[in-house]
Amino acid sequence: MSPSGMTRVQTMACGSCSNENAFKAMFIWYRNKERGHKTPSEEDLSSCMVNQTPGCPDLSILSFMGAFHGRTMGCLAATHSKAIHKLDVPSFDWPIAPFPRLQYPLEEFSRENAQEEARCLEEVEDLIVKWRQKGRPVAGIVIEPIQAEGGDNHASPDFFKSLRNIARKHGCAFHVDEVQTGGGSTGKMWAHEHWGTDDPADIVSFSKKLLTGGYYHRDEFQADKPYRIFNTWMGDPSKNLILAEVLNVIRRENLLEEVTRSGRALLNGLYDLQAQYPGMLSRARGQGTFCAIDVCDDATRDSILLKARDKGVLLGGCGDRSIRFRPALVFKEYHVHIFLNIFNDVLAQHK
């Protein structure tokens, strides 16, 4: 199940510590590259003990508006989805790029969406240059294949491939955060597989559906000394045993194909419902069963979530006014129809 080009995996206990340690791996890689892989100087060693340069370098991670990467200090600095996550916690002066805001249906707005993605990519390059000039070079770029917590925001495969090339051009690491998208719910084990590239990233982090946490990485992101990437549990061996069996079931029961089939039925059902309730629903979107739809306002969205729950359906909110659908991999087409009938009843109460 390892991502293309990834030769190593470092297990962790959860999504936040997976991303936090992946950030550390990128910083260590970047500094080793800068010093020509020589031994750190005495000044490096002494200054880091009092949180000063050069031992604690002024490096940065570029992230995107709407992103969610976790609740630890570094991850929180790269998180920009809800104010309540960040309030009262000191942070870092790191660059934040705009994430494309696509218009739907995609086939009707291909030109506008291409322009929007080009604008965001241009801003990424400008920020990398600006932060280098500020003396805080970008050591790595972190992005989700689908911004989940931030509102199920999608971008095209070309956008991500271009971003990968920008990272390479400027000597930045490229970290794809698959904590929410990894594990099969998009119809592939990794959402980045939909980009169709052999070299998707330098680091891919995971957790949630994959039971434990951790990150896959290319050889050069292996820490050069022991204990540089380390914590109490370093993941959970018992969860790895369970995960091995889960992966066997996914293969044996062809669950990724099942997800693709049921995801198609779910998205088509959401298209029908947004045509039926045009004043209430819009922007139906998704990959596999990793789907979402926008509601006219947050109060209506929250009311729909409550009424669906009362009818036995658990749905989640994300972004300002989106509903996200996150069924299990065993969710089949007949489950889709059961759900759509209940969802239609709930919507009818809000007409």
UniProtKB/TrEMBL annotation:
SUPFAM superfamilies on file: PLP-dependent transferases
GO molecular function, one term: pyridoxal phosphate binding
Keyword Hydrolase: no
Alphabetized UniProt keyword annotations: Aminotransferase, Pyridoxal phosphate, Transferase
GO cellular component: mitochondrion
Domain of life assignment: Eukaryota
E.C. numbers: 2.6.1.19
Keyword Lyase set for record: no
Any one GO biological process: gamma-aminobutyric acid catabolic process
Cofactor list: pyridoxal 5'-phosphate
Gene3D superfamilies found in the cross-reference section: Aspartate Aminotransferase, domain 1, Type I PLP-dependent aspartate aminotransferase-like (Major domain)
UniProt record similarity statement: Belongs to the class-III pyridoxal-phosphate-dependent aminotransferase family.
Name of this protein: 4-aminobutyrate--2-oxoglutarate transaminase
Organism phylogeny: Eukaryota, Metazoa, Chordata, Craniata, Vertebrata
